[in-house]
Here is the input.
Amino acid sequence: MTPAARVVRNKVEQAQPFAVTDVLDYLIAALALLGARSRHFLAGRLWPDSSEAQAAGSLRASVFQVNHQLPNLLCFSNDSLFLDPAVTVDFQRVRWLIADIENAGAEISAAATDDLLEADLLPGWYDDWVIGHQERHRELRIQTLERLCLAHLAAGRYASAGSTGSAALWA
Here is the structure.
């Protein structure tokens, strides 16, 4: 998820590009990573240096902007916010790919492998609430790349094993 973000609903990319400000990016990323959360939790997480009232106001303004730029992206339930279940997040696609690789019988395409090789989570983000997610994602990616490297070796695909093993070392 970057400022060049795109929205995909029900496997169809939305036709209109949209500008994402840092604040909107953080809100969308938080919901993608954390799932449904209360407004109070999100306000405190995204605006930790603001008073409770200021953080709540910033969240209201951000929700308004998201709803204006990307109608129906956000869903509401009681006091909780979450992304529309029809929205696909790249982070989720990588997790599904990792689950497929862990399934011993799964055949993984070269394109899917490339997705895994380049699947850093929110590169360049250094906020406290993101770093733990980045580390867990990185560890899972390394373990999966190692598993994939061993599968390539066992199948005699030495070039693929080499590039996958190298990616695991540099991840």
Residues 1-5, 15-20 have pLDDT under 50 and may be disordered. The beta strands are 8-9, 12-13, 37-38, 74-77, 80-83.
